[in-house]
Amino acid sequence: MTARLPGTAERPETGAGDATASSRTATASAGRGADGHALLEVSDLRMYFPITEGILLERHVGDVRAVDGVSLEIRRGETLGLVGESGCGKSTTGRAITRLYRPTGGRIVFDGTDITRAEGEPLRRIRRRMQMIFQDPYSSLNPRMTAAGIVGEPLDIHAIGTKTERRERVRELFRIVGLDPDFGERYPHEFSGGQRQRIGVARSLAVNPDLIVADEPISALDVSIQAQIINLLERLQAQFGLTYLFIAHDLSVVRHISDRIAVMYLGRIVELAGTRELHAAPLHPYSVALLSAVPIPDPAVEARRRRVILRGDVPNPASPPPGCHFHTRCWLRERLGNPPECETVSPPLAEWRPRHFAACHFVDRLGEMPESAAPATSGVSRPPARETPPA
Fold this sequence. Notes:
By secondary structure, this protein is α/β, with parallel strands linked by helices.
Protein backbone atom coordinates (compact mmCIF):
# COMPACT_ATOMS: atom_id res chain seq x y z
CA MET A 1 0.00 0.00 0.00
CA THR A 2 1.30 3.49 -0.83
CA ALA A 3 2.12 5.82 2.03
CA ARG A 4 -0.13 8.83 2.63
CA LEU A 5 0.84 12.14 4.14
CA PRO A 6 -1.31 13.79 6.81
CA GLY A 7 -3.96 15.96 5.22
CA THR A 8 -4.08 14.17 1.88
CA ALA A 9 -7.24 12.49 0.65
CA GLU A 10 -7.39 8.72 1.12
CA ARG A 11 -8.34 6.72 -1.96
CA PRO A 12 -9.99 3.33 -2.21
CA GLU A 13 -7.66 0.55 -3.27
CA THR A 14 -8.34 -0.29 -6.94
CA GLY A 15 -5.74 -2.96 -7.57
CA ALA A 16 -2.18 -3.07 -8.74
CA GLY A 17 -0.60 -0.62 -11.13
CA ASP A 18 -0.92 -3.02 -14.06
CA ALA A 19 -4.72 -3.27 -13.72
CA THR A 20 -6.47 -3.76 -17.02
CA ALA A 21 -8.34 -1.09 -18.95
CA SER A 22 -11.57 -2.98 -18.28
CA SER A 23 -11.34 -2.13 -14.59
CA ARG A 24 -10.96 1.54 -15.52
CA THR A 25 -14.04 1.32 -17.71
CA ALA A 26 -15.96 -0.42 -14.94
CA THR A 27 -15.08 2.44 -12.59
CA ALA A 28 -16.28 4.97 -15.13
CA SER A 29 -19.48 3.05 -15.77
CA ALA A 30 -20.44 3.65 -12.16
CA GLY A 31 -20.92 7.22 -13.34
CA ARG A 32 -22.12 9.46 -10.59
CA GLY A 33 -21.18 9.29 -6.95
CA ALA A 34 -23.48 8.24 -4.16
CA ASP A 35 -24.65 11.84 -3.72
CA GLY A 36 -26.03 11.86 -7.29
CA HIS A 37 -23.76 14.36 -9.08
CA ALA A 38 -20.83 14.06 -11.44
CA LEU A 39 -17.34 15.01 -10.30
CA LEU A 40 -17.24 17.97 -12.70
CA GLU A 41 -20.16 19.78 -14.34
CA VAL A 42 -19.58 22.68 -16.74
CA SER A 43 -22.52 24.72 -18.00
CA ASP A 44 -22.35 27.36 -20.76
CA LEU A 45 -18.68 28.09 -20.03
CA ARG A 46 -17.42 31.21 -21.81
CA MET A 47 -13.90 32.61 -21.90
CA TYR A 48 -13.50 35.86 -23.84
CA PHE A 49 -10.25 37.80 -24.13
CA PRO A 50 -10.77 41.54 -24.69
CA ILE A 51 -9.40 43.35 -27.72
CA THR A 52 -8.41 46.95 -27.00
CA GLU A 53 -7.18 49.91 -29.01
CA GLY A 54 -5.24 52.98 -27.95
CA ILE A 55 -2.26 53.55 -25.70
CA LEU A 56 -3.22 56.18 -23.13
CA LEU A 57 -6.96 55.67 -23.41
CA GLU A 58 -7.68 52.05 -24.15
CA ARG A 59 -11.02 51.25 -25.76
CA HIS A 60 -12.67 47.85 -25.72
CA VAL A 61 -13.39 47.13 -29.38
CA GLY A 62 -14.15 43.41 -29.31
CA ASP A 63 -13.43 39.98 -27.83
CA VAL A 64 -11.63 36.82 -28.84
CA ARG A 65 -14.22 34.15 -28.06
CA ALA A 66 -11.84 31.34 -27.19
CA VAL A 67 -14.55 29.33 -25.39
CA ASP A 68 -18.11 30.13 -26.37
CA GLY A 69 -20.74 28.19 -24.44
CA VAL A 70 -19.19 24.82 -23.54
CA SER A 71 -21.29 22.40 -21.47
CA LEU A 72 -20.04 18.98 -20.35
CA GLU A 73 -19.72 16.70 -17.37
CA ILE A 74 -17.02 14.28 -16.29
CA ARG A 75 -17.96 11.30 -14.17
CA ARG A 76 -15.78 9.88 -11.45
CA GLY A 77 -13.01 7.58 -12.66
CA GLU A 78 -13.52 8.20 -16.38
CA THR A 79 -11.40 9.87 -19.03
CA LEU A 80 -13.05 12.47 -21.23
CA GLY A 81 -11.04 13.22 -24.38
CA LEU A 82 -11.26 16.73 -25.81
CA VAL A 83 -10.17 17.00 -29.45
CA GLY A 84 -10.17 19.57 -32.23
CA GLU A 85 -7.95 21.68 -34.44
CA SER A 86 -5.35 24.09 -33.08
CA GLY A 87 -6.99 27.28 -31.88
CA CYS A 88 -10.40 25.76 -31.20
CA GLY A 89 -10.23 26.52 -27.45
CA LYS A 90 -9.29 23.13 -25.95
CA SER A 91 -6.44 24.36 -23.74
CA THR A 92 -8.37 27.46 -22.72
CA THR A 93 -11.24 25.22 -21.62
CA GLY A 94 -8.88 23.17 -19.45
CA ARG A 95 -7.30 26.25 -17.92
CA ALA A 96 -10.69 27.79 -17.17
CA ILE A 97 -11.90 24.59 -15.53
CA THR A 98 -8.87 24.53 -13.21
CA ARG A 99 -9.40 28.28 -12.65
CA LEU A 100 -6.05 29.33 -14.06
CA TYR A 101 -8.34 31.71 -15.97
CA ARG A 102 -11.36 33.41 -14.48
CA PRO A 103 -14.27 32.55 -16.79
CA THR A 104 -16.17 35.32 -18.52
CA GLY A 105 -19.44 33.47 -17.96
CA GLY A 106 -21.04 30.12 -17.27
CA ARG A 107 -20.81 27.80 -14.31
CA ILE A 108 -18.21 25.29 -13.07
CA VAL A 109 -19.34 22.85 -10.38
CA PHE A 110 -16.69 20.57 -8.88
CA ASP A 111 -17.97 17.76 -6.66
CA GLY A 112 -21.14 19.70 -5.91
CA THR A 113 -19.39 23.01 -5.19
CA ASP A 114 -19.69 26.01 -7.52
CA ILE A 115 -16.12 27.24 -8.08
CA THR A 116 -16.84 29.67 -10.91
CA ARG A 117 -16.14 32.77 -8.81
CA ALA A 118 -14.08 31.18 -6.02
CA GLU A 119 -11.10 33.20 -4.87
CA GLY A 120 -8.51 33.14 -2.09
CA GLU A 121 -8.53 30.31 0.42
CA PRO A 122 -11.62 28.48 -0.96
CA LEU A 123 -9.98 28.32 -4.40
CA ARG A 124 -6.67 27.15 -2.89
CA ARG A 125 -8.46 24.28 -1.13
CA ILE A 126 -10.21 23.27 -4.36
CA ARG A 127 -6.91 23.27 -6.26
CA ARG A 128 -5.63 20.49 -4.03
CA ARG A 129 -8.23 18.29 -5.71
CA MET A 130 -7.65 19.34 -9.34
CA GLN A 131 -4.24 19.51 -10.97
CA MET A 132 -2.85 20.02 -14.47
CA ILE A 133 -0.21 18.41 -16.69
CA PHE A 134 1.08 20.94 -19.22
CA GLN A 135 1.95 20.47 -22.87
CA ASP A 136 5.60 21.54 -22.88
CA PRO A 137 7.59 19.37 -20.46
CA TYR A 138 10.41 21.92 -20.34
CA SER A 139 8.82 25.37 -20.06
CA SER A 140 6.37 24.08 -17.42
CA LEU A 141 9.29 23.29 -15.06
CA ASN A 142 11.21 26.00 -13.21
CA PRO A 143 14.81 25.76 -14.54
CA ARG A 144 16.19 27.14 -11.26
CA MET A 145 14.62 24.44 -9.11
CA THR A 146 15.73 20.85 -8.70
CA ALA A 147 13.38 18.07 -9.75
CA ALA A 148 12.72 17.23 -6.10
CA GLY A 149 11.92 20.86 -5.37
CA ILE A 150 9.48 21.00 -8.29
CA VAL A 151 7.63 17.83 -7.27
CA GLY A 152 7.58 18.83 -3.60
CA GLU A 153 6.43 22.41 -4.16
CA PRO A 154 2.68 21.58 -3.97
CA LEU A 155 3.30 19.94 -0.60
CA ASP A 156 5.05 23.11 0.62
CA ILE A 157 2.31 25.39 -0.71
CA HIS A 158 -0.45 23.42 1.02
CA ALA A 159 1.65 22.81 4.16
CA ILE A 160 1.20 19.04 4.01
CA GLY A 161 3.31 16.94 6.38
CA THR A 162 6.65 17.61 8.00
CA LYS A 163 9.84 18.22 6.05
CA THR A 164 10.87 14.59 6.48
CA GLU A 165 7.45 13.34 5.34
CA ARG A 166 7.54 15.62 2.31
CA ARG A 167 11.01 14.38 1.38
CA GLU A 168 9.84 10.76 1.59
CA ARG A 169 6.70 11.58 -0.38
CA VAL A 170 8.78 13.11 -3.19
CA ARG A 171 10.96 10.00 -3.38
CA GLU A 172 7.83 7.85 -3.46
CA LEU A 173 6.39 9.94 -6.30
CA PHE A 174 9.60 9.51 -8.30
CA ARG A 175 9.28 5.75 -7.95
CA ILE A 176 5.58 5.83 -8.91
CA VAL A 177 6.27 7.59 -12.23
CA GLY A 178 9.28 5.40 -13.06
CA LEU A 179 12.18 7.68 -12.11
CA ASP A 180 15.14 7.01 -9.85
CA PRO A 181 14.55 8.91 -6.56
CA ASP A 182 18.22 9.91 -6.57
CA PHE A 183 17.52 12.02 -9.69
CA GLY A 184 15.76 14.54 -7.45
CA GLU A 185 18.88 16.69 -7.11
CA ARG A 186 19.15 17.22 -10.86
CA TYR A 187 17.79 20.25 -12.74
CA PRO A 188 15.24 20.10 -15.60
CA HIS A 189 17.83 20.59 -18.33
CA GLU A 190 19.56 17.39 -17.22
CA PHE A 191 16.55 15.23 -18.15
CA SER A 192 15.18 14.02 -21.46
CA GLY A 193 11.77 15.17 -22.69
CA GLY A 194 10.02 12.03 -21.48
CA GLN A 195 11.68 12.24 -18.08
CA ARG A 196 10.67 15.88 -17.73
CA GLN A 197 7.06 14.97 -18.48
CA ARG A 198 7.24 12.26 -15.82
CA ILE A 199 8.33 14.96 -13.38
CA GLY A 200 5.27 16.98 -14.42
CA VAL A 201 3.07 13.94 -13.81
CA ALA A 202 4.67 13.38 -10.38
CA ARG A 203 4.04 17.04 -9.47
CA SER A 204 0.37 16.71 -10.43
CA LEU A 205 0.05 13.64 -8.16
CA ALA A 206 1.75 15.21 -5.14
CA VAL A 207 -1.44 16.28 -3.30
CA ASN A 208 -3.55 13.26 -4.37
CA PRO A 209 -5.99 15.11 -6.67
CA ASP A 210 -9.33 13.78 -7.88
CA LEU A 211 -9.22 15.42 -11.33
CA ILE A 212 -6.21 15.91 -13.61
CA VAL A 213 -6.43 18.06 -16.73
CA ALA A 214 -3.81 16.72 -19.16
CA ASP A 215 -3.24 19.45 -21.74
CA GLU A 216 -1.68 17.64 -24.73
CA PRO A 217 0.84 15.90 -22.46
CA ILE A 218 2.44 13.85 -25.27
CA SER A 219 2.41 16.18 -28.30
CA ALA A 220 6.00 17.35 -27.72
CA LEU A 221 7.40 13.82 -27.26
CA ASP A 222 8.73 11.11 -29.56
CA VAL A 223 6.28 8.40 -30.58
CA SER A 224 7.89 5.70 -28.43
CA ILE A 225 7.91 8.02 -25.41
CA GLN A 226 4.28 8.96 -26.08
CA ALA A 227 3.26 5.32 -25.61
CA GLN A 228 5.16 5.16 -22.31
CA ILE A 229 3.44 8.28 -20.94
CA ILE A 230 0.00 7.05 -22.04
CA ASN A 231 0.60 3.69 -20.34
CA LEU A 232 1.79 5.52 -17.23
CA LEU A 233 -1.37 7.66 -17.10
CA GLU A 234 -3.59 4.59 -17.49
CA ARG A 235 -1.71 2.75 -14.74
CA LEU A 236 -1.99 5.72 -12.38
CA GLN A 237 -5.71 6.03 -13.08
CA ALA A 238 -6.29 2.39 -12.20
CA GLN A 239 -4.06 2.62 -9.13
CA PHE A 240 -5.40 5.87 -7.64
CA GLY A 241 -8.91 6.18 -9.11
CA LEU A 242 -8.09 9.36 -11.02
CA THR A 243 -10.42 11.25 -13.34
CA TYR A 244 -8.90 12.79 -16.51
CA LEU A 245 -9.78 15.53 -18.94
CA PHE A 246 -7.39 14.51 -21.73
CA ILE A 247 -6.77 17.22 -24.34
CA ALA A 248 -5.07 16.17 -27.57
CA HIS A 249 -4.92 16.48 -31.36
CA ASP A 250 -4.26 12.82 -32.13
CA LEU A 251 -7.58 10.99 -32.42
CA SER A 252 -5.93 7.57 -32.32
CA VAL A 253 -4.37 8.37 -28.93
CA VAL A 254 -7.62 9.82 -27.62
CA ARG A 255 -9.46 6.70 -28.78
CA HIS A 256 -7.02 4.51 -26.85
CA ILE A 257 -7.23 6.32 -23.51
CA SER A 258 -10.71 7.88 -23.41
CA ASP A 259 -14.08 6.56 -22.28
CA ARG A 260 -15.93 9.42 -24.00
CA ILE A 261 -14.85 12.04 -26.53
CA ALA A 262 -15.93 15.66 -26.98
CA VAL A 263 -15.17 17.23 -30.37
CA MET A 264 -14.60 20.98 -30.24
CA TYR A 265 -14.72 23.54 -33.02
CA LEU A 266 -14.22 27.30 -32.68
CA GLY A 267 -15.01 27.43 -28.98
CA ARG A 268 -18.00 25.08 -29.02
CA ILE A 269 -18.61 21.37 -28.47
CA VAL A 270 -20.06 19.99 -31.73
CA GLU A 271 -20.23 16.30 -30.77
CA LEU A 272 -20.06 14.31 -27.55
CA ALA A 273 -20.29 10.51 -27.37
CA GLY A 274 -18.68 7.33 -26.14
CA THR A 275 -15.39 6.51 -27.82
CA ARG A 276 -16.66 3.47 -29.69
CA GLU A 277 -19.87 5.18 -30.78
CA LEU A 278 -18.05 8.25 -32.09
CA HIS A 279 -15.54 6.25 -34.11
CA ALA A 280 -18.10 3.80 -35.46
CA ALA A 281 -20.80 6.33 -36.41
CA PRO A 282 -19.96 10.05 -36.05
CA LEU A 283 -22.98 12.36 -36.31
CA HIS A 284 -21.33 15.71 -37.11
CA PRO A 285 -19.69 16.61 -40.45
CA TYR A 286 -16.64 17.99 -38.65
CA SER A 287 -16.13 14.73 -36.74
CA VAL A 288 -16.40 12.80 -40.01
CA ALA A 289 -13.65 14.97 -41.52
CA LEU A 290 -11.38 14.52 -38.49
CA LEU A 291 -11.81 10.75 -38.46
CA SER A 292 -11.18 10.50 -42.19
CA ALA A 293 -7.72 11.98 -41.58
CA VAL A 294 -6.73 9.17 -39.19
CA PRO A 295 -4.61 6.65 -41.14
CA ILE A 296 -5.74 3.02 -41.21
CA PRO A 297 -2.92 0.44 -40.76
CA ASP A 298 -4.48 -1.84 -43.41
CA PRO A 299 -3.15 -0.67 -46.84
CA ALA A 300 -6.08 -2.23 -48.71
CA VAL A 301 -8.65 -0.40 -46.59
CA GLU A 302 -6.67 2.84 -46.69
CA ALA A 303 -6.49 2.70 -50.50
CA ARG A 304 -10.28 2.40 -50.82
CA ARG A 305 -11.02 5.22 -48.43
CA ARG A 306 -11.43 8.81 -49.60
CA ARG A 307 -10.49 11.73 -47.38
CA VAL A 308 -12.92 14.50 -46.51
CA ILE A 309 -10.83 17.61 -47.14
CA LEU A 310 -12.09 20.73 -45.38
CA ARG A 311 -11.79 23.88 -47.44
CA GLY A 312 -10.54 27.19 -46.12
CA ASP A 313 -9.21 28.05 -42.70
CA VAL A 314 -10.71 28.13 -39.23
CA PRO A 315 -12.62 31.44 -38.90
CA ASN A 316 -11.33 34.21 -36.66
CA PRO A 317 -12.62 33.63 -33.09
CA ALA A 318 -12.82 37.40 -32.69
CA SER A 319 -15.47 37.43 -35.41
CA PRO A 320 -17.04 33.96 -35.64
CA PRO A 321 -19.56 33.32 -38.41
CA PRO A 322 -23.24 33.57 -37.46
CA GLY A 323 -25.41 30.49 -37.06
CA CYS A 324 -23.44 27.26 -37.11
CA HIS A 325 -19.76 28.13 -36.72
CA PHE A 326 -18.81 25.26 -39.02
CA HIS A 327 -21.05 26.24 -41.95
CA THR A 328 -18.26 28.09 -43.81
CA ARG A 329 -16.35 24.79 -44.26
CA CYS A 330 -19.12 22.21 -44.07
CA TRP A 331 -19.10 19.64 -46.89
CA LEU A 332 -22.57 18.39 -45.92
CA ARG A 333 -24.07 21.85 -46.27
CA GLU A 334 -22.64 22.12 -49.79
CA ARG A 335 -24.14 18.78 -50.77
CA LEU A 336 -27.53 19.88 -49.45
CA GLY A 337 -27.54 23.07 -51.52
CA ASN A 338 -26.44 25.53 -48.80
CA PRO A 339 -29.65 25.67 -46.70
CA PRO A 340 -30.09 29.12 -45.12
CA GLU A 341 -30.65 27.93 -41.53
CA CYS A 342 -26.97 26.99 -41.26
CA GLU A 343 -26.07 30.68 -41.54
CA THR A 344 -28.80 32.05 -39.27
CA VAL A 345 -29.59 29.52 -36.50
CA SER A 346 -27.02 28.10 -34.09
CA PRO A 347 -27.77 24.36 -33.70
CA PRO A 348 -28.04 23.12 -30.09
CA LEU A 349 -26.04 20.18 -28.80
CA ALA A 350 -28.93 17.68 -28.95
CA GLU A 351 -29.13 13.99 -28.11
CA TRP A 352 -29.71 12.12 -31.40
CA ARG A 353 -28.89 8.69 -29.99
CA PRO A 354 -28.68 7.49 -26.38
CA ARG A 355 -25.84 9.54 -24.82
CA HIS A 356 -24.67 10.61 -28.29
CA PHE A 357 -24.96 14.38 -28.79
CA ALA A 358 -24.33 16.46 -31.90
CA ALA A 359 -24.83 20.12 -32.84
CA CYS A 360 -26.01 20.01 -36.46
CA HIS A 361 -29.30 20.85 -38.19
CA PHE A 362 -28.99 17.95 -40.63
CA VAL A 363 -27.73 14.95 -38.68
CA ASP A 364 -30.51 12.87 -40.27
CA ARG A 365 -29.05 13.73 -43.71
CA LEU A 366 -25.55 12.53 -42.89
CA GLY A 367 -26.22 9.42 -44.98
CA GLU A 368 -25.62 11.66 -48.00
CA MET A 369 -21.93 11.93 -47.12
CA PRO A 370 -19.27 11.33 -49.80
CA GLU A 371 -18.75 7.69 -50.70
CA SER A 372 -16.04 5.95 -48.65
CA ALA A 373 -15.57 9.04 -46.47
CA ALA A 374 -16.81 7.19 -43.41
CA PRO A 375 -14.34 5.77 -40.90
CA ALA A 376 -13.15 2.35 -41.96
CA THR A 377 -13.97 0.80 -38.57
CA SER A 378 -17.58 -0.03 -39.37
CA GLY A 379 -18.97 2.64 -41.65
CA VAL A 380 -21.41 5.40 -40.85
CA SER A 381 -25.04 4.47 -40.75
CA ARG A 382 -27.82 6.91 -41.42
CA PRO A 383 -28.99 8.18 -38.01
CA PRO A 384 -32.69 8.03 -37.25
CA ALA A 385 -34.65 11.24 -36.95
CA ARG A 386 -35.43 12.27 -33.39
CA GLU A 387 -38.96 11.91 -32.10
CA THR A 388 -38.85 15.33 -30.49
CA PRO A 389 -36.93 18.41 -31.61
CA PRO A 390 -34.12 19.73 -29.42
CA ALA A 391 -34.93 22.32 -26.81
